[in-house]
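Dear Dr. K.,

Following up on our conversation at the group meeting, I've run the structure prediction for Methyltransferase domain-containing protein from Pseudoduganella lutea. I'm pasting the input sequence below exactly as I used it, so you can double-check it against your construct before we proceed with anything downstream. Let me know if the numbering doesn't match what you have in your notebook.
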Amino acid sequence: MLSERELESCYLGQFIPVHYHHNMLMDTNRMHSFRAAIEYVVQPGMKVLELGGGTGALSFFAAQRAEKVYCVDFNPDMVQEARRFLALNRCAGKVEVIHADAFEYLPPEPVDVVICEMIHVAMLREKQVEVIENFKRRYAQKFGGPLPVFLPEAVLMAAQPLQQEYDFEGFHAPIVQFQQPAIAQPGTVEMAQPAVYSVIDFTQANDTSYRWEGKFVIDRDGTVNAIRFITKNILSVVQERASTIDWLNHYMSLPLEQPVRARAGDVLQVGFAYRAGGSIQSLQARLTAHVLYQAALQPQVVAYA
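The predicted structure tokens came back this morning:
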């Protein structure tokens, strides 16, 4: 019988269909932010490694300045696709596309920058955290220090209670929803402000398990029936401007098995636990919410004639 980890690997693993990668090219926020961060971080003459290269677009950005780029992917379809696209963009001489497992591959020489975009909301499904932690240990053993600069440099993850509409032309279906940030979502009511539950700094050692219990003060009367997960990727820190180049993933809204009625001023406690790279279902199964404290009842005002 397969273990939970093996089942999750089969569930998605590193073999995302090719057309998913094509859709990533059409995500203008993703492409613009990564291009800006890579142009800032990669300096002329540098050596760059991309783990999980996909179509090769990020390796192409790096090749505009780097001396050499190693682009690694485990999916043979994506290796073929990256080689085709990079040849069309006349980068084949600078970028070496390598068919290898990111969990095992090490470059033949030290590199200055490692680009790794195996990112899903809440660090689920894909193996971003595990791949980088594994890479850091193996790289240090082979080359010693210092470690390369990682892109992204850090990730902030937050949660937020919602009242979410699940009516589809009269058909009630509480489903996982992915929502584009910074756009009003019909049928979505934010019941409290978001709370950060984890910060990943790729320059440090990181745990691959998350367990959190947090409290939210409810802003309005309603029913909390979903929790939104927010993932902000700090692609690069621009120190001279005291700013960052960021990429915000699509929001992920997970329905609660037991909706919770809440009033403005109530304190809602939310809890969950999951492993980085785990399935969405593994998070849903351990997602809970309940009212911890009720808002004080307002005294009635009696008018006297």
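Two things stood out to me. Residues 1-13, 298-305 have pLDDT under 50 and may be disordered. The chain has two domains: 4-117, 154-293.

Best regards,
J.T.
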